[in-house]
Specification:
The chain is mainly α. Helices cover 53% and strands 7% of the residues. It comes from Ancylobacter polymorphus.
Length: 81
């Protein structure tokens, strides 16, 4: 998947433990761990908002797009534009 999660790096820079973040935003440590490892297919906007509020960061600090060989066409190309 071309979307990469860099939550672990943000946590390290902020010196925040996953357990602390999970408790402060109201999700389980297991779910936060899956997110931190990039093993999820999606994230709810309210969860992303809570993470950004707690870590004082932007969504782009946590998520980034890295195209791979399977993702060469843009949405406009796929739509026939």
């Amino acid at each position: 998947m071309p979307i990469k999660v860099s939550l672990a790096a943000v946590l390290a820079r902020r010196n925040v433990k996953s357990k602390e973040l999970a408790a402060s935003i109201g999700i389980t440590e297991a779910n936060l761990s899956l997110l931190r490892q990039g093993k999820v297919k999606g994230i709810r906007f309210d969860t992303l908002e809570a993470i950004c509020r707690a870590l004082d960061c932007q969504p782009g600090d946590i998520l980034r797009f890295e195209p791979d060989s399977e993702t060469t066409a843009t949405p406009a190309q796929e739509a026939g534009d």
